[in-house]
Design brief:
It comes from Salinicola lusitanus. By secondary structure, the chain is of the alpha/beta class. The chain contains 14 helices and 8 strands. It is globular. The relative contact order is 0.13. Bound molecules: flavin mononucleotide. The site of flavin mononucleotide has 22 residues, from strand 1 and helix 9.
Length: 336
């Protein structure tokens, strides 16, 4: 997730081993081949990648995501990424940002399935030559859902080995509800595995998304930031045949936020920037957790790191609150 999930976030969120794989933020491709440092910045795990490709410190595989509309540029950059050790590529057909769509990237390609086919085909041609898999991340459409299946079929025909479907159109943005039942229509029309994505915040959401989409696997986005134990919760529920983990206490959430701040400080990031990243994460947590909401309100004007961190960890306010967390599924993936 652009501006939200980076190498440090991936390391923290994957450390309990419950995620099957993670995705980087998108690398935006215009036409020219990008220098190696761009790929390294988006995927610092490449610095230590072995034959298994980039992995987090807990050995969770990391997929690199590309975004663009120029088949030759994308193919050249896929080649570059592979030469640096990438073993799984993902193509973004979901980004709703106006700047990206104006330049014909992300969700804007969903207006023309033929272009989805061409873009995936160009990257798959390179990937297959190197034994690297390519996936596509799709929304249900741009303005409406008329081309949802056609775009999924185009991605499959182009060579995508797996499709992740965010169950909304670009016009629907991030507004609930996610239309998981539409993913079932896509599944019925393609042969490759389909992963359901969108609005999975809890075990109940997980199960509902699985039931309505028919997908075995889901991708977790904001829900994983709101409850960093969501994937573990799901996996435990599945592995034990229905046993629920207790809700995530605030102390565990604040510990993760503070360790994130520590990692950023160790990397030399400016304190103000660290505070704004922490606020962004806390902002996602607060919708699902009353303690996070209280801390967010108390700290929203704070710009200095030390008092911000103290405000996260102080034990003076409410007790360990919890999210409404619960979730279920066979494998989960962290959105880029
Ligand atoms: C701030 C933000 C940044 C995102 N960046 C990306 C991205 O770089 N690539 C991508 O495929 N999806 C991106 N997404 C979309 C998410 O991966 C996901 O599809 C969407 O948020 C729905 O899932 P969720 O409800 O579980 O968050 C982003 C979403 C948000 C909110």
């Amino acid at each position: 997730m652009e501006g939200v999930i980076d190498g440090d976030t991936r390391a923290l969120l994957s450390e309990d081993g419950a995620l099957d794989w993670c995705v980087t933020e998108f690398v935006r491709v215009v036409d020219a081949r990008l220098p190696p440092r761009v790929f390294l910045r988006h995927c610092p795990e490449l610095a230590t990648a072995g034959s298994a490709g980039p992995i987090t410190p807990s050995a969770t595989p990391v997929t690199l995501q590309l975004l663009g509309s120029d088949p030759r540029g994308l193919a050249a950059n896929a080649e570059q990424a592979i030469s640096q050790g990438v073993t799984r590529l993902d193509l973004n057909f979901g980004c709703p940002a106006k700047t990206v769509n104006r330049h014909d990237g992300g969700a804007s390609l969903l207006r023309t399935p033929e272009r989805v086919y061409t873009v995936v085909g160009a990257v798959a041609e390179v990937s297959q030559r190197h034994g690297v898999s390519v996936n596509a991340k799709l929304r249900l459409g741009f303005d409406d859902k008329q081309l949802a299946l056609a775009c999924a079929q185009a991605a499959e025909a182009g060579g995508a080995e797996e499709l992740v479907v965010h169950a909304r159109t670009r016009r629907e943005g991030y507004r609930p509800p996610a239309h998981w039942e539409w993913i079932a229509r896509i599944r019925a029309g393609v042969r490759v595995p389909v992963v359901a994505n969108g609005d999975i915040w809890s075990l109940e959401d997980y199960w509902k998304a699985r039931t309505l989409s028919g997908c075995r696997d889901v991708m977790l986005g904001r829900g994983m930031l709101a409850d960093p134990w969501l994937a573990r919760r799901i996996r435990h529920w599945l592995e034990t045949g229905g046993e629920r983990l207790s809700p995530t206490p605030w102390s565990a959430r604040s510990d993760m936020l503070i360790r994130y701040a520590d990692a950023k400080r160790d990397a030399g990031m400016a304190e103000k920037v660290i505070v704004s990243l922490l606020k962004q994460w806390l902002n996602i947590m607060r919708g699902r957790d009353s303690e996070a909401a209280a801390r967010f309100t108390a700290l929203r004007r704070e710009t200095a790191l030390a008092p911000f961190v103290a405000g996260l960890s102080d034990l003076g306010s409410s007790s360990d609150s919890t999210s409404s967390g619960t979730a279920a599924h066979a494998s989960s993936t962290l959105a880029g």
